[in-house]
Amino acid sequence: MNQISINLLPKKQKKQRFCKLFILPIVTAFLLLTASIFIIQWSKNEELARIDSQLEQAEQEKLLLEQQTMNNQSAGDIDRLESAIAFMEQYPIPTVEVLNHFTELLPERGFFESFQYTDTGLITLTVQFDTSREAAFYLHQLEQSEKVTEASLQSIVAEEVDALEAASENLLPRYIAQYTIMLNQQLVREENEVE
To answer: What's the half-sphere exposure (Cβ side, CA atoms, 13 Å) at 74?
Structure first.
């Protein structure tokens, strides 16, 4: 009898090789795909954490800027208030009261021709007098006034009178004096506040 021997092992090896050739790449692709998904997920989580950190930092900076803005506004309000106070301290003095004071110092026949007043307290005054002596007396009165820190006579000129008019009407020449006066602004302000 002849025995027939069947060898099944090599055929099994072919199946295993076939499985290895197809399953191994699929498993490898699955593992690579899973690893890629995990890496992508991890990088997205990292990016999300970085964005959250930037957002938190931006919110802190926003709060800090708002606080600085409020502080600057408060400082700005204080600066505006100080400017208003400084302006009020330097505010020009009512001219009427100053003019009334200088009018009181005039001799009986003295008349203002012009009055110029600057906010620095400098006054230029042009006055008409009957005699040059009255012009000198008025300068003395200005120098004695508490409301004046400095006074000077800049010029005095005799006004020309027509000879015929002077003879017919007994006219004497008039004297025009120009004064420069520095007003004591603080004293005048204090007196105005008391009133």
So the answer is: 6
